[in-house]
Design brief:
The chain has 343 residues and is of the alpha+beta class. Among the domains are: 90 residues, 3-layer Sandwich (Rieske Iron-sulfur Protein), CATH 2.102.10.10; 147 residues, Naphthalene 1,2-dioxygenase Alpha Subunit, Chain A, domain 1 (Alpha-Beta Complex). It is built from 6 helices and 18 strands. The strands form 4 sheets. The chain has a 7-stranded antiparallel β-sheet with strand order 12-18-17-16-15-14-13. Helix 5 packs antiparallel against helix 6. The longest helix has 25 residues. It is globular, with a radius of gyration of 23 Å. It starts with 12 loop residues before the first strand and ends with a helix.
Length: 343
Amino acid sequence: MGGRFPFPGLPSGWYVVAVSEEVKRGQIVPRHYFNQELVLYRGDDGVVRIADAFCPHMGAHLGRVGKVEGNILRCGFHGFQYDRQGRCVETPYGGPPPARARLRFWEAREQNGLILTWYDAAGEGYDWEVPVLDDARWNKIRWRRFDIPTHPQETTENSVDFGHFTQVHGFVDGSITRAIQLEGPLLTTAYRAHRPIPMPALPLWKVPVDYAVNVWGLGYSQVDVRIDPLRFDMRVWVLPVPRDDEHIDLVIGVSTRKGLGPLSAYARRAVHKIVCKEVEQDLDVWTYKTYVEQPPLAKGDGPVAVYRRYVKQFYPPIPGASDQRAVDEAVTAAAEAAISSSE
């Protein structure tokens, strides 16, 4: 892959291509992701489906001239109709539809207010899933989408880049409370940092904030946040999806635990605003930084080397790479050193 990032293509995994409320029944929503044109639509059965945007008959963009009729997707150019398996079931001309008029559908999951699809550059199927969360005790999620000229690997790396929390976001007295762990596509870690809160005529109050990080590939991060002195819990979703090799949509979601009574709606708005403000603090870094392949890491940086070993599983082999085993061994050694230094 050429350009700004030296990564070998777009990483495989589950990506959130929309939130549920964006796709109404009978509506078609166009999306440009993975260097491709897609459409999302919801039929009368309430199920969301994801398909290639261009009609296989003569190439009309279904997100611009298509219609949902019941559970059928109808092209407005020549009236070809496609069922839930992508088969052309009717044309306006009578007779059997052309066998090759078949629309490609993508894997689709709708869970926790999110619509996910599986992407793999080689067209391979999925072999893991993003778990469904029990949201019965949680309030409705508030969402915001950012358009950023960067790559999913860069934004997801923030989950383990411990050093930037103090320098960019103003936290103090940070510590890793659970060392990074890797289980196939799942990366987990936990840390604590303190948020300074100046109080008039009083000593500086430092509020401890605990983060439990769960990363499923490079398209889905979910963080449980606990502020013990306030007895306050929230969930944060960080969901990058690549539009092309150097641009992403970054969807940020925030939910709070039920039980705050009249303060619940205010708390949801307030914490969502705070989390989005922290994302805004990262924007200039992501937009203008370059990627350093072998950074001279310091102990306080956190397990960045471990993360970079973890992400390798989501890419195809690098064409023409010489002695890949030596590269892997070097990265593994760096990762083990980072684990030791972070414990």
